[in-house]
Amino acid sequence: MPPVAAAPARRGGERGAPRRLAFVCRSPAVHTHPGRGMGGRQGMSRDSQVPGFAVVGRPNKGKSSVVATLARDDSVHIAAAAGSTRDVRRFPMRVDGETLYELVDTPGMQRARQVLAWLREHCQDAAARPAAVRQFLLEHRDDAQFADEVHALEPVVAGAGIIYVVDGSVPFGADYEAEMEVLRWTGRPSLALVNPIENSDYVEQWVTGLGQYFQTVRVFDAHRAEHHKQLELLSLFGHLDPEWQQPLQRAVSVLRADRERQHLEAAEAIALMVEEGITYSVSQALPEGAPEAPVKKLLYNRYCRHLIRRERQCREQVEALFYYRELKTAEAGMDFDEEELFDQENWYLWGLSQRQLLVAAGAAGGIAGGSAGMVVDGMAGGLLHGLGTLAGGIGGAIASSRQVLRRSEDIARWTVSGIPTGGRRLVYGPSRNLNFPFVLLGRALQHHRQVSQRTHAVRGALKLDEPVLDWLDDSQRRKLALIFEDLRRGRRVDQRRSELVGLLRAWCLAADHAESSSSSR
């Protein structure tokens, strides 16, 4: 099973494959009103009567990170500075146009003790506490002193459930109890999350303290919460209010199915990109007597630019499938500068090692018969951003293990043929480099794993600089080499394409299982 690498995120617009997630309601501020529910029923949002949850707490405790992760939305504003959220913003989680639930990001509460003092002064009856909170909002709606508290409490009073977020890396203190008590006065179903922002030094303190105020307490790292943990949290909330149980059960079911679709469609996108990478060629007719050198340079550049665009398109398709619109990447480019020599330390970073190439070449017919004319090379770490490290490859037909690691000038071969009208046709490609499709595959799989296993709260760049094909066994390498060679030569194309997609589907789906098992150890 392939290992799963976790990593960080990039920003941009709608790209690549069609996205099934629609993000709406991006106004700077959306306010609810005391006494008016977020829909016709208590606890349901205004959008199609779905559950709504207000994420509340003090400034800079990770509230927006929790919203971004649970809403799967990388447009949620997250900043290190305290108090960066000044308005109420709603983030519906939608799949195929259906809103499953809604997260409400709120400003941090900073004057909870004054609010609690007002409530106690105006209410002596526990049964009247929710009404007292509503009255506080009515009387202080335009009071700048309590603007943050009003904005935080309005969606709760309007019917949202409470997700209270604290930082598990700072000590629990009695001064937090005022805001917990204020939230308890609302009478709404509640859940507390301990978000270990820097470390987990004080998590146990928080779990004990929060348990006295909230029905359910969970440790939830918004930056590392695996997909299954996010679904567990939704299921848990479904048990806090009978009205939420059925819609949240459906939400979990839809999100599980959507997760499988994401992996399967990503596998198809990767397979198509790899197939195109090893079958693509460019050509140009030359009049009789015309010089070849300028046309060769033109075709070579066109070939490289196409591969660069095709890999980037595949990246964008996968990012869009996992609902990333603004993901940043830090990735080595494939350098095709013909003046550069190989950086031998990186030859096999993305593809196969020398020993692995020998095994794969045998399966593709390179060593056994020599007739395949396969170029077995060491690939440089950079891919598809300039393409010379790759161009320094290893050349010649494979006749023995000693010949496997010879140099060649290019990733592909030039062919020249006559044309009926006179002159010649120059053709560059397709690639005959045995390692090339493995490099494309390795980079694409690492990108998929990092994208699929990160959360939308992460804002750092996605770093794609680790080898990922070490987990392939020899039989898998031989199988892939055979698939690649047949696709390159146009043999049994439908069968080989189907086999490649099947392998990729299994590996993409395995990313979640590997992450789940590693997190449970």
Secondary structure topology:
Elements: E1 52-56, H1 63-71, E2 89-95, E3 98-105, H2 112-122, H3 129-140, H4 147-157, E4 161-167, H5 177-185, E5 190-195, H6 203-210, E6 216-219, H7 227-238, H8 242-279, E7 282-286, H9 293-321, E8 329-331, E9 333-335, H10 354-363, H11 366-369, E10 383-387, H12 388-391, E11 412-418, E12 424-431, H13 436-453, E13 462-464, H14 474-489, H15 493-520
Parallel strand pairs: 1-3, 1-4, 4-5, 5-6, 8-13, 9-10
Antiparallel strand pairs: 2-3, 7-12, 11-12
Helix pairs in contact: 2-3, 2-5, 3-4, 7-8, 8-9, 8-13, 8-15, 9-13, 10-14, 13-15, 14-15
| Annotation, overall tally of beta strands | 13
Structural class: alpha/beta
- The run of helices and strands is EHEEHHHEHEHEHHEHEEHHEHEEHEHH
| Helicity range | 40-55%
Count of alpha and pi helical runs? 15
Task: Please state the average pLDDT score.
Answer: 77
Gap between N and C termini, in Å? 16 Å
In terms of per-residue confidence, which ranges show pLDDT below 50 for 5 or more consecutive residues?
1-42, 335-348, 366-410
Q: Write out the strand line-up for the largest beta sheet, numbering strands in chain order.
A: 2-3-1-4-5-6
Largest sheet, if any?
6 strands, mixed
Radius of gyration computed on alpha carbons? 29 Å
Overall, the morphology is elongated
Strand content: 5-15%
In total, how many domains does the architecture comprise?
A: 2
